[in-house]
Amino acid sequence: MKMTRILIPVMTPLALAISSVASAGPAGYAPPPPPTQEFKIRIGAAYISPNSDNVTFADSLLIWPDPINPEFNRQWGAFRANIDPSDEWGWFINAEWKPMDHWGVSLSYTDGDRHSGGHRRGWHDRFGLPYDGRRRNFARWEPQMTAAYLNWYPLDPSCLIQPYMGVGLNYTDFSSERLRHWGWINPFTNRAEDWPGRLNLGDNWGYTWQLGVDFNFGHDSSWLINLAVIYYDVDTDIEVDTFFTDVPRQQSYRHRFGGDYLFDPWVFNIGVGYKFDFHW
User: Fold this and answer.
1) Which segments of the protein form a coiled coil according to its record (predicted)?
2) Which of 8, 92, 183, 192 is deepest in the core (most CB within 10 A)?
3) pLDDT per residue over 145-188, tens digit each?
4) What are the boundaries of each domain within the chain?
5) What is the pTM of this model?
6) Do the Cβ atoms of 134 and 122 come closer than 8 Å?
């Protein structure tokens, strides 16, 4: 009984020490912390600068038929136009998941404001009649771009400034297309006449890449400032349908002109972000 009273106070601290060393591993070090997953949400303003491109519009119907006098059928053929949309502001939102320290996967959506632009050049039919004059800002549309990226972060996660670069795929669609100032110069009155019509831009899949940086407010803060520059590869079909009526003959006509337009915008983002993480 006396020996028990002596051994218990001595063995208890020794047992606790042996237990802590055993749990720390063979080398006596504490086990590494469990892996951390990080999530980020960013939102802000996007400045969208589309590409200026020369487009050849070809008339898919190729001819303006004259049912009464077929010998006066007029060949419309093709003409050139410069598509030069204005730069506009929009907004963006993206979400990113970082399953490991230096790699992340993000999904981004950018909604652009209304772009307007375009400069048509005049052309003549085979009889020498002018069918177009100087026309500016004949096209309007709003782009929506959705993109998925694989991002690489070169610096240690403990750094307050986190640059990154990413590559991925984008899907671009267009809405609110509108055709303005589309018509001809009447050779008999020498006045410009606008025809009703509609504009359509096709959707597109392409590649995209980005360079960005997150400025963290502090090691214990979840808030950050985000800056990024993004390039989208967007090659879209642009179509113009025009409708007009030959009043003396009461004949209605429709013509469709089509061409390929390289939208290819540069986008500059500035926004705020919030991050959070958990162990798994």
Assistant:
1) none
2) 92
3) 999 999 999 999 889 999 999 999 999 999 887 776 666 555 55
4) 1-32, 36-279
5) 0.73
6) yes
Residue with tokens 């909604």: 111
Question: Residue 13: phi, psi to the nearest 5?
Answer: -60, -35
CATH number of 36-279: 2.40.160.20
